[in-house]
Amino acid sequence: xxxxALVIILVAISYQRKKADSDGSxxxxxxxxxxxVHLLASYFFYGIGYFSFIFADRMKNKF
Length: 63
Hints:
Layout: H1 2-21, H2 33-62
């Protein structure tokens, strides 16, 4: 428990130092929307299928 508290404190201190060192003006270039859709579509459809099977299983067992 003490170790967890120590790690949280050290992470908070490190975060504050990094935040103070940066001027906040650096912008992140996001990927194109078409690339984002292409990369994430498989995960999206997998999630839809996965939860559809879970829902169907629950409905089957309920009735």
